[in-house]
Design goal:
about 180 residues; alpha/beta; Rossmann fold; 10 strands
């Protein structure tokens, strides 16, 4: 086999490996973002204070919609403890009362019109509204998760947080990427 043939075979192998690595990296990045999102949601439960009237049971409930792509990862925190309460994951449909929720995660896969409806339905309730959708804070959301060059960060809109009767801990506010105050 000539040097050119060996080199050509070598390059085609490298191209194949590079393509495979790129697809693995893309898959890993999506999985990593989902795992980090779940970790953030769990920590938001730990560093948020709800009015006593909304903490009557022994659970803190994270509500998700049918558009949430990482239910399996959320299962990893179900049953864990946060603020001496058991974490529960509940899928909720538009039209159901969100009053059972302590935190609601609305994924970017959700339609914007539905996100606006969820925000409207929880406006006066002590429900921490979190999403990874762009412009979520401008819609009236509370916490927006952002993928910032393979680093997950979050922005906070304090007005709806205060209006709902929730309090975010000073520790949590120290690590906010951007704080929005109207």
């Amino acid at each position: 086999m000539s040097y050119f043939s060996k080199c050509k075979a070598h390059w085609s192998c490298l191209v194949l490996i590079a393509g495979l690595m790129a697809s693995i990296h893309a898959s890993f990045a999506a999985t990593n973002e989902q795992t980090l999102t779940v970790a953030f949601l769990y920590n938001f439960l730990k560093f948020t204070e709800w009015p006593a009237s909304s903490l009557t049971g022994g659970e803190l409930t994270i509500c998700i919609t049918d558009s949430t792509p990482f239910r399996e990862e959320l299962g990893n925190i179900a049953g864990r403890s946060a603020q001496n309460k058991t974490v529960r994951i509940k899928q909720i449909e538009l039209g159901e009362s969100p009053s059972v929720c302590h935190l609601m995660f609305l994924p970017r896969e959700e339609k914007p019109v539905r996100i606006r409806e969820w925000i409207k339905n929880t406006d006066t309730l002590p429900v921490l509204m979190v999403s990874n959708m762009d412009e979520f804070l401008d819609m009236g959301g509370m916490i927006m998760l952002i993928d910032d060059d393979n680093r997950l960060v979050f922005d906070v809109n304090l007005d709806p947080v205060k209006r709902s009767g929730l309090k975010l801990s000073a520790q949590l506010l120290k690590i906010v990427h951007k704080l929005k105050i109207n």
